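It is worth pausing here to work through a concrete case rather than discussing structure prediction in the abstract. The textbook approach is simple: state the sequence, then state the predicted structure, then interpret. We follow exactly that order.
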Amino acid sequence: MANFIVEFPLKAEKYQEDVLNKRFEIGRQIYNSLVNVTQKRYKEMIKTKKYRTLLSSLTRNKKCDKEIWKQINDIRKQYGMSEYSFYKDVKQMQKHFKDNIDSFTARKIATTLWKSYDKLFYGNGKKVYYKKYGGLNSLEGKSNSTGIRFKDDMIIWNGLEIPVVIDYNNYYEYQAMQSKICYNRIVRKYVRNKYKYYVQIVFKGNPPVKVDTKTGEIKHCIGNGDVGLDIGTRTIAISSQSDVKILELADRVQNIEYQKQKILRMMDRSRRATNPDNYNEDGTIKKQGSKKVRWNKSNHYIEYQNELKELYRKQADIRKYQHECLANYIISLGNKVYVEKMNFAGLQKRTNNTEKNDKGKFKRKKRFGKSLANKAPSMLLTIIDRKLRYYGEKLIEINTFKAKASQFNHFDGTYTKKSLSQRWNDFNGIKIQRDIYSAFLIMNISDDLKNFDIDKCNKRFENFYRLHNLEVNRLTGKKNLSSIAI
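Step two, the predicted structure:
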């Protein structure tokens, strides 16, 4: 069953904020202690010849690998590398802090760590990390009956009773409070040089439908029909039977590289002035052997650090808001939303090949790391999928390598490779922007998600071309990204 989250501010007194900060720090220490214990077992496990042999013998055949995975999981259980074992470990730690951290909250800390190991074992995780000081900013329970509880507009937790600010005149918040509560999460956010505290209540079911208070109309209804998305590192092309668009992702997110460089330079100067003994004469950091380098932070350094943190927070909030709005618009166009399967993590990495350009100079190995960090296209797709699931639908990923939307021509059924700089297709005098045309083809994918439905393409093309020209006219003369090329 689906869940949804509503965040409410906490009206905490100063002493309650101090207690919460203390508990966040205790939670961080429990997490790090758990990392310490489990890492010792993990390192012993990966030393064993049997474990390494089993991992190397894995193939991509599910039937063949089934027995191997069973043996691997048995070894992991023997070495205590399971979520249940983590629960037993954290139980021993929690009893020393029972006045601050209850057993269910401690178990959720263990679950958080297990997710990191799960990613390491089965996903693309490389390492399990410790949390830095101030790095743990949320604690949650497992239900609303024990631990962190919500009752009578108050958060009750181990002696703390903190009022929750709920606007019952707000239709959405009022309707949300009628749903059953799964569990609660206390969050702190560093906003304008101070911490602010919130409770995220996780409710059962789908979120309430938002209503326009003036007209009484339902906001953000889901549409009916096919929608194709061609998403890039900085732009998205959208094609449906009612509208065609090409937009810059999160266009209000500014390029903060200059501001970041300025703050980081000031931080570096401050750190060098405060810690002269940590540097060699040539300006490099001294190697301390097995000892950890100790850094003293001046008040100015901490101010710069907080300024940088605030910069990142603003960017993240703007990006999230714009993605939510864009996702609402996309699902209003149709209930069947198609997109190419993308490997954004691969695009973030530097290329391994060392190449030279025509002038004999080495090409940069950098790819799309900064664009992806600023625009977060993967986050947008996650939000669209979440919103579709409220209506029993999901984001449908087509086979990128079989379909080849950027190369296909539905008029003659041929595939033609194009360079990235070629932003327009010319089909016997019919000029179409490349990304918008790819979105149109993706909208008309066959049921096998590997080929395009030519009949659909031919039926819908006239309407698409009309909407395409309207969008091109809208953008003509405006300042756009070079990848849009309009």
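Step three, interpretation. Residues 140 and 185 are 4 Å apart (CA to CA). The chain is about 45% helix and 15% strand.
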